[in-house]
Design brief:
There is one protein chain. The protein has helices spanning 3-19, 50-58, 62-73, 96-109, 139-142, 144-157, 173-186, 199-211, 220-245, 256-261, 264-274, 309-322, 340-349, 387-404, 416-420, 427-448, 465-486, 491-510, 523-546; strands at residues 46-48, 79-85, 89-94, 123-127, 161-168, 252-255, 278-281, 284-287, 298-301, 327-333, 358-363, 366-370, 373-375, 412-415. The protein is α/β, with parallel strands linked by helices and 554 residues long. A five-stranded parallel beta sheet has the order 6-5-4-10-11, sandwiched between helices. A three-stranded antiparallel beta sheet has the order 1-3-2. The chain has a three-stranded antiparallel beta sheet with strand order 7-8-9. Helix 11 crosses helix 12 and helix 16 runs antiparallel to helix 19 (523-546). The radius of gyration is 29 Å and the shape is globular. The relative contact order is 0.11. The chain binds one RNA strand of 76 nucleotides through helix 7, strand 9, strand 14, helix 16 and helix 18.
RNA sequence: GCGCUCGUAGCUCAGUGGAUAGAGCAACGGACUUCUAAUCCGUCGGUCGAAGGUUCGAAUCCUUCCGGGCGCGCCA
């Protein structure tokens, strides 16, 4: 009995009451009834507030409606008992056998447990990180790397066709500043006033000189061009390598420059003009974003004739849509929240629907603390924390998990000491340890010759409280995945895994799975082994959706 | 000044209108001859920033205020 099945049981009960004219609902029967896990054990296995919600349309007092529904629900063999509490909550206790069936169905589903076809046929473009190629990926841009990648994995599990994309801003003045900075450092001069500083500038400059030894004898203009061409290429390579080692592989690295080379910019400008959403003023071409809710209109093509930055955004968006993506999601740091209005307006200027075709997610800032003092993050202030530093300090799994376990809505402070210190402080180990324990039990079972047979499994044997807790936790998994997708919040999955790991550890402490020493394997051992298999599937699957490894041993 | 966003235990954070607001860490006290003690059990810890409002019910929705972060260019 999963929450979804119980929801259906309640809907069926409502239908039966309506069919027999014992109940009349003005708004009809709701297609879905929400079932929750009560916080208190006194409130049963599951609870629903449906009687409170339907009291008005039914023209009944909440408790009277609850009574009516309760007596109908009691007829279901999967329901052990029903109680009405408070203003009209219906608290349901599920039959042990029905509960135990969850273990069997998970093992039978295997790695596809939690997957669905909720998003089948949907094409989703996910753009994230998109850090400028003028330096390594810093921690701010890094937040979306594991979160965006995890979202991609979750959407895929629900059947969507997903593209992970990285937009390289390799066109524009910052590239000039970068190449001038490289040149200056290579010549041992002070970097330009508006240039980039940091150890990486020197490293890249040295690599350019190693590749093109003659560069230092060239005149300024030619030398800078070499630094621009080779330096940016090296930066691309380094960024890609970093992300790859972080387990984040993009399907498309999109170069802003390509939009200029292909004429895509002009086409986008022409399209926006066709739509009647541009006008000329002060010698420039403006995009009328204000009429679509932006705070003011934006320059699309400058009076010099050069397209403004937003022209690239427009062309890139148009390109994505023309490649057939129904939904484009752009993930930005809080320092870019000011772009939301203009990007949403741009979407409408193309005749698209905001929030349906374009969605923008804003992630609050991540700050790092070391020795109790904040680590500065501004890219041009030498003391920057890069994603490479974070990986080196706490490992790929730790870094991914540390960034993905918090809501993107909240400002997060990551204490490097905590995540590098004793592993028990680290939530990722807690979950991974549960997986390693599960794997260990399965190894020992093989050695002892204990085998679980899903076809010959008695679900009633899993009657211990801790077994029930674990079964209910496992049954929640598909809904957690679904919710994480709907809300674009992978952290829910991480929190779920921590809670489920805890539930498993408690089960492990109370319920011996394998026979002791000379004891003969019995049905209870085989039943619990099946539960262990089911739990391992869920934990492995959950970690997989977060892009974190599930170790067999620790 | 305008705008966006956040504010929950000593710290870091959960909580998509439900019941007595939760977890980890920190502090203190327990549990290993048995499937991994990277675990488990217990104790301690709260004016959900403040005040109003909406309703059967608000940490959650609305308004105002306070505090932190960020943004407001024919830069990218």
């Amino acid at each position: 009995m999963t929450p979804e099945q119980l929801s259906q049981t309640i809907v069926d009960a409502l239908s039966a009451l309506v069919d027999r004219r014992e109940l009349a609902l003005t708004g009809g029967i709701p297609p879905e009834v929400r079932v929750e896990r009560p916080k208190s054990k006194d409130h049963g296995d599951y609870a629903t507030n449906i009687a409170l919600q339907l009291a008005r349309p039914a023209g009944l007092a909440p408790r009277d409606l609850a009574e009516l529904l309760a007596s109908e629900l009691k007829a279901s063999p999967a329901v052990a008992s029903v109680e009405i509490a408070g203003p009209g909550f219906i608290n349901i206790t599920v039959d042990t056998a029905a509960q135990g069936e969850v273990a069997r169905s998970i093992v039978e589903a295997g790695a596809s447990y939690g997957a669905s076809d909720a998003l089948t046929g949907k094409r989703i473009n996910l753009e994230f990180v998109s850090s400028n190629p003028t330096g390594p990926v810093h921690i701010g841009g890094a937040r979306w790397a594991p979160v965006g990648d995890s979202l991609a994995r979750i959407f895929s599990a629900l059947g969507a066709e997903v593209s992970r994309e990285y937009y390289f801003n390799d066109h524009g003045a910052q590239i000039d500043r970068f190449s001038r900075s490289l040149l200056a450092v290579a010549r041992g001069q002070a970097p330009p006033e508006d240039g980039y500083v940091g150890d990486y500038v020197g490293e890249i400059a040295a690599k350019v000189v190693a590749t093109e030894p003659h560069v230092l004898s060239l005149p300024d203009g030619e030398a800078q061009e070499v630094f621009r061409r080779v330096g940016v290429e090296l930066m691309f390579a380094q960024i890609k390598q970093t992300l790859h080692s972080f387990g984040v592989d993009f399907d498309v690295f999109f170069h802003e420059q390509s939009l200029y080379d292909s004429g895509a910019i002009e086409r986008a400008v022409a399209r926006l003009t066709e739509m009647g959403n541009t006008y000329e003023a002060d010698g420039a071409l403006w995009l009328a974003t204000k009429r679509y809710g932006d705070e003011k209109d934006r320059v699309l093509v400058r009076s010099s004739g050069a397209p403004a930055y937003i022209a690239g955004d427009c062309a890139y968006y148009l390109d994505k849509r023309e490649r057939g993506f129904d939904l484009c999601v752009i993930m930005l740091g809080a320092d870019h929240h000011g772009y939301v209005g203009r990007l949403m307006a741009m979407c409408q200027a193309f005749g698209d629907k905001p929030h349906e075709n374009l969605e923008i997610l804003i992630g609050q800032m991540v700050s790092l603390v070391r020795d109790g003092t904040p680590v500065r993050m501004a890219k041009r202030a030498g003391a920057v924390i890069f994603i490479d530093d974070l990986i080196e300090a706490i490992g790929v799994d730790g870094a991914r998990y540390a960034l993905v376990r918090y809501s993107s809505d909240s400002n997060v402070e990551i204490d490097i000491d905590v995540w590098t210190r004793a592993s028990s402080d680290n939530p990722v180990y807690y979950v991974q340890y549960a997986h390693a324990r599960l794997a260990s039990i399965l190894r020992n079972a093989t050695q002892l010759g204990v085998v679980s047979v899903p076809d010959d499994f008695d679900p009633r044997l899993l009657s211990h409280d801790r077994e029930g807790d674990l079964l209910r936790a496992l049954a929640e998994f598909p809904r957690i995945v679904q919710t994480a997708a709907e809300l674009r919040e992978p952290h829910r999955l991480a929190r779920y895994l921590e809670a489920t790991a805890s539930t498993f550890h408690k089960f492990y402490d109370n319920c011996r799975v394998l026979p002791h020493g000379s004891e003969e394997p019995a049905d209870i051992h085989r039943a619990r082994l099946l539960l262990v298999e089911a739990t391992k599937i869920v934990v492995a699957r959950g970690l997989g959706l977060l892009g974190v490894s599930a170790p067999e041993r620790m």
